Amino acid sequence: MAVLQTRELTKTFGELTAVDSVDFAIDSGEIVGIIGPNGAGKTTLVNLLTGVFESTSGEIVFDGRTLGDSPVYSRAQSGLVRSFQIPQICDDLTPVENVRSAILTREGYNKSLFTVLDWEDDTRLEASDLLEEFGIVDQQETRAKAIPHGDKKILDVCMSIAMRPKLLVLDEPTSGVATENKYTIMERLRSYFETSEVAVLFIEHDMELIAEYAERVVAMDRGRKIIDGTPEEVLEDETVKRRIRGEE
Asked: What are the CB-based long-range contacts (under 8 Å, 24+) for 105-112?
């Protein structure tokens, strides 16, 4: 069953059509990659799905409900959660405190962040368990600004997972990470998602990572979906080779 579906989803900025009548669906537990050249509309599509932008036309149906103009926080609390290309963490908090803040947001606490982080409750155990599952529990009491960039990316994902998403949108999860560490990050992600029902939609420029970790791939160019299929089908498509992979 589709956890998310778009129908004729379109976004224009003046004369520019950034997303042009895009239809696609993601099933529960499915891992879908989005590829395309710069300016293809990938990030704009993600911004539409997560409520950063309002669509010009078309609709988004998530978990059986049409989202309309519902805001970012409402979509996140309903299970449509995003992790960013640049990690959205508080550098002056520790990893365990960052994850706890996400848990408390999920639970709807409205008090001062620095007040609720002083509470000794089950949120610390939940946060620590999640950091252990992703291999960075040994740094849980280190200020986030002092941990490596790759671990910051993992921490950002942990915070997103702490929101208990039904669909997690990852914007270039290995961006800025050294080549030798990219597969470590993706293996940790795959290990987690193989044991959950979370659907994943991720933007990625590295075609090797797409081939290895996506179950299905959506290729975009100039705001339009040009092909949707298995990694093999998409990466061997002639338009994809020419427009996205730079092959003649």
From this structure: 105/163, 106/77, 106/162, 106/163, 106/164, 108/77
